[in-house]
Sequence to fold (204 residues):
Amino acid sequence: MKIIINLLAVLLFFCSCLNQNIPNLSPAPENPLGAGSVVLLKAGESSFGTAFYIGKGRFLTAAHVVTSKEAMLPLSINGHKTTLLKIDEDWDLALVYCNTIPGLQAFEFADNEPKVKDEVYASGWHNGSLFATSYGKVSQIIKGYVITSAPINKGCSGGPLINGDLKVIGVNRSILSWSGGWNGVSIHVGLKQIKVFLNDKTNN
Fold:
């Protein structure tokens, strides 16, 4: 009986995803585990990803969310015009600005880098419509990147990776999946590189 219930739950989940591609109206910001506000960031007509609020109208995200091969894309959060402040395409980081959305809670950054086997949570807007927070553990830390088992689905790039203290330790970048699905190894830009990016005055 339990197996049947689980199968039905999975079926309902996938049916809801099929009917929820990119919404006409952006969903309201979510607050995973009470840590801070995570928003759906739209770039152009059909591109989307995740960003998270760090205070003073600023949102951190991944560079590949806000750019295309041809040009910079017009940005919006919940229908509000959003401006690109700075970008580092080498590290896949971008900072955008939108000060017209009320009631946002800023994330805090951790003081220290995570360690192998630390528990972590990755949040984002799956398929641009379904908010999700996945759980995993740190597998490795390699050359500024945090490697985890927390799944990153399509649309979750640019979202926060947070530790057990609910503080940011990374930015979701991509997933290496041999099946093409959610199961694989997730890659996040690490805390040190985020702080360097935010403090750097040369990549505006």
Notes: The first strand starts at residue 38 and ends at 43. The longest helix spans residues 2-18.
